[in-house]
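Example (one chain per record):
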Amino acid sequence: MIDYFKVEIPFYPRIDLLNNQKLDFKADYSLSTGETFDTKMVAECNGMKFISTSSERLFVQGSIHKYYNFLKKEYAPNQFSEQKRKKGFNGNTFNLTQLKYSINHLCDLIKIKPLEAILRGLEYGLNIDIENDSQEFLDALINHKQISFSSIKDIDQYFRQVKHQRYIIKCYDKQIQYELENSIIRFENKQMKMFDLKNLSIKTLENLMNINNLEELKFLLLKKWDEVLLFDYTIKKRHLNEVQKNQLKDLSNPRMWQKIKSNHTHRYKMRLKSFSENYGTNIHREFKNKLNNQWDLQNKNCVTFNRLFKE
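Predicted structure:
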């Protein structure tokens, strides 16, 4: 579902922001004269950042999923200190009802209508519970559209990503990030520019509250996953002959995929797919099915707002 977004409200008087008692805006100032540089004012609230420019444009950006969890006081198992809680939590599920509530709450905070908030960036994806080890799953990622996955790994995070010109494909280990009980993988697409979504009915925050518009995003997410190349570590090597074992060894090597010319990749992908279907569980297809089912699950059986949250 929806996580991070960046929206613009083209004209928003600064006086209205400064009079908002729930937002504490800060600006740069000169240490020698005390003069305030008011070209940009910034406030933060529940993980969302509010940025007012000198032209009286207002930008709001952050994770709407974390925003909801801040409101609900939902934290991760390892967020036992106030410092860690300030980082927010988005390792649980986030459905359509919760999204609608959060958008309306956010818009009420700054007294605008969702229709007035124009999307400038959008991140959408899902947290998926998998049977296998989450790190093993991430290790198996090879590339997306012929670009190899990069890795960032330390004691409390492990994620892999592929950067394109206007978007980034990301895959996270939510279990290690938040010390969750289950193996949770988040797969998402971060649209840094809205150009790739120009043909969709998604222009404002109001559009994100329409289930039909979210269906369009689901098909895009599934398409992005179809473009991911993943080595199936469930393939049973003991059932292969020596020639097949050597072929499989090559297919598991990311460097080999980097050397293959683009017009030859289809043949090798079909070979890997055949191994996966005949000698493994086909984890690529399993994960796609989970994405599809989880998206549908989070968009049905929604409750009314007054049942969802009591302030």
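Caption: The chain is about 35% helix and 25% strand.
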